[in-house]
């Protein structure tokens, strides 16, 4: 490297020290939340594929090995730095509501909000079409080859990793599956696998084989589409064959701001990436943070929390599908607007509405020696999505429809053929015209909070990607409530972080008892000036960063 890697790994007791070392390589890098997916991506690099091939292969494997978080019935978004085109591209792979799903129809059925489970929560799956769209533009290996690791894993089986098993078991016990098709594919006699259990999903392997042979149309037409429509009819839903066959992903221009001179890129609405950018603008307007050498600053924590509160308020007021509603992105990302919002932040915590919308997601990132950098996120939204399985396909439909409002005056109101408000957001940092870091943090409304913290850790405190991911986080819950991952952390102002924030009016809660990733789980890859790739994989997940040379 042109300069030493920033690291506190060799300093026991140092507050910035990470629990993991960075992965380092030049030939390529894959970072995911389950090792099997990281290795599948690395295998594509070893076969001569590029970062795009690696991302698709890893995403497909995650549909098998982390099934509560992602699947063929979900959506996907991507930011791609294309080395060939020399620019940053955005891909919106989210699905739309059925053409006959109207706000009036839902309200006539007695709903004042879209149910979180069941067929009414489902929207058209977008992930598979997004894979093919990404591959057609920038992939190198045959599309079928990219699905081979996922097919093999589903057919032959896999050992269930620890945290995946934890949530899988809890969700099954909570009764998330809404029909026999979901239960038969993803449980054994109603019971979820335990850590280390070997699990097979032959029905999903067959669906993946069909997609490998036919491409995306293997899901949107033919037997899989027939199973989805038949399931919808049986569950009194609204899906038609036309809803599936007409689906398409969209290439979009990323939106961005600068944070202390670093460009931060996100996808535009209907996603919530704009909330992360607004929060960073507000945080920047509040001034420079405490120097690295001091203890954590309670003031900095307070400012981060307050900045994201204001960003959430803007998100909830304005973000909707831009194909149906006008969203003034430029005004919301104005530095002058951020200064006005920052002026509302004082010593005491603001009262604000709850952010809502927690969910389960997988985020991954990949890089190659050619300069391609992929930031990719994929999700069923809530655990096992709608809970509705589709015949003998092994596919469970997502619950993204619950992101709609049933308020006729709200821009994010349900309408036919409309994309809902979406939580999943891939991120990218650039230095000038050069890509620097692909990053993301999963976890519903945790995601903009995690993006803000990660970027600040990297830019303000000079941490490497692993350190920036591993630092304690907060989770704003609404009103003045905030969960702290490390309330006992010492702060420069004296005492503990929890006490210091309480004195400023925050209603502080501890991390809680059973959710290991309540503060999200992220992945990141930075490309240094001399081409060295530096990968990080969140300690809060089962995964790993794997380099290739």
Question: How is this structure best summarized?
Answer:
This protein is of the alpha+beta class.
Describe the structure.
By secondary structure, the chain is α+β, with helices and mostly antiparallel strands. The protein has helices at 35-46, 51-65, 103-108, 127-138, 143-156, 162-173, 180-186, 202-214, 217-220, 222-234, 241-245, 273-285, 298-318, 329-332, 335-342, 446-461, 465-470, 497-503; strands at 23-25, 28-32, 75-82, 87-93, 158-159, 198-199, 250-252, 255-259, 262-266, 360-368, 373-381, 427-431, 434-442, 474-478, 481-484, 507-509, 521-527, 533-537, 544-548. A 7-stranded antiparallel β-sheet has the order 1-18-17-13-12-9-8. Helix 1 packs antiparallel against helix 2, helix 2 (51-65) packs parallel to helix 5 (143-156) and helix 12 packs across helix 15. The protein is globular. The chain starts with 22 loop residues before the first strand and ends with a strand. The model has no long low-confidence stretch (mean pLDDT 95).
């Amino acid at each position: 490297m042109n300069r030493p890697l920033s690291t506190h790994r060799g300093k026991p007791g140092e507050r910035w020290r990470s629990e993991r070392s960075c992965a380092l390589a030049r030939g390529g890098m894959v970072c995911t939340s389950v090792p099997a997916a990281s290795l599948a991506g690395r295998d594509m690099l070893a076969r001569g594929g590029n970062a795009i091939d690696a991302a698709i292969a890893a995403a497909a494997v995650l549909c098998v090995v982390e099934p509560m978080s992602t699947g063929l019935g979900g959506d996907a978004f991507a930011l791609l730095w294309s080395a060939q085109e020399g620019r940053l591209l955005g891909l919106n792979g989210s699905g739309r509501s059925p053409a006959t799903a109207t706000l009036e129809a839902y309200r006539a059925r007695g709903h004042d909000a879209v149910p979180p489970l069941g067929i009414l929560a489902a929207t058209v799956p977008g992930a598979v079409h997004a894979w093919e769209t990404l591959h057609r533009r920038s992939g190198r290996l045959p599309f079928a080859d990219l699905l081979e690791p996922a097919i093999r894993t589903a057919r032959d089986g896999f050992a269930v990793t620890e945290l995946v098993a934890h949530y899988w078991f809890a969700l099954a016990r909570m009764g998330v599956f809404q029909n026999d098709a979901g239960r038969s594919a993803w449980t054994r006699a109603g019971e979820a696998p335990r850590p280390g259990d070997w699990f097979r999903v032959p029905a999903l392997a067959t669906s993946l084989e069909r997609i490998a042979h036919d491409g995306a149309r293997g899901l949107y037409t033919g037997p899989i589409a027939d199973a989805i429509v038949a399931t919808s009819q049986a569950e009194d839903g609204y899906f038609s064959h036309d809803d599936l066959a007409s689906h398409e992903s969209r290439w979009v221009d990323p939106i961005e701001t600068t944070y202390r001179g670093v460009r931060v890129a996100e996808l535009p609405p209907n996603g919530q990436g704009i909330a992360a950018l607004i929060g960073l603008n507000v945080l920047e307007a509040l001034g420079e943070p405490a120097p690295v050498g001091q203890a954590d600053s309670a003031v900095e924590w307070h400012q981060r929390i307050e900045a994201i509160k204001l960003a959430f308020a803007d998100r909830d007021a304005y973000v909707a599908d831009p194909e149906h509603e006008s969203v003034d992105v430029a005004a919301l990302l104005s530095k002058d607007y951020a200064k006005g919002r920052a002026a509302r932040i004082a010593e005491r915590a603001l009262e604000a509405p709850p952010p809502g919308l927690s969910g389960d997601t997988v985020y991954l990132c990949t890089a190659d020696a050619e300069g391609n950098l992929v930031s990719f996120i994929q999700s069923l939204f809530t655990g096992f999505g709608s809970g509705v399985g589709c015949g003998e396909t092994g596919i469970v439909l997502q619950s993204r429809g619950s992101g709609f409002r049933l308020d006729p005056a709200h821009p994010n109101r349900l309408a036919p053929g409309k994309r809902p408000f979406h939580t999943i957001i891939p991120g990218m940092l650039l230095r000038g015209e050069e890509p620097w870091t692909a990053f993301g943090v999963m976890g519903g409304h945790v995601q903009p909070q995690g993006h803000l913290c990660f970027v600040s850790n990297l830019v303000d405190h000079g941490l490497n990607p692993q350190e920036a991911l591993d630092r304690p986080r907060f989770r704003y819950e609404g009103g003045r409530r905030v969960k702290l991952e490390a309330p006992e952390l010492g702060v420069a102002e004296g005492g503990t972080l929890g006490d210091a924030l309480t004195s400023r009016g925050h209603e502080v809660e501890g991390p809680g008892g059973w959710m290991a990733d309540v503060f999200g789980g992220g992945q990141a890859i930075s490309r240094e000036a001399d081409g060295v790739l530096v990968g990080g994989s969140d300690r809060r997940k089962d995964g790993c960063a794997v380099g290739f040379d």
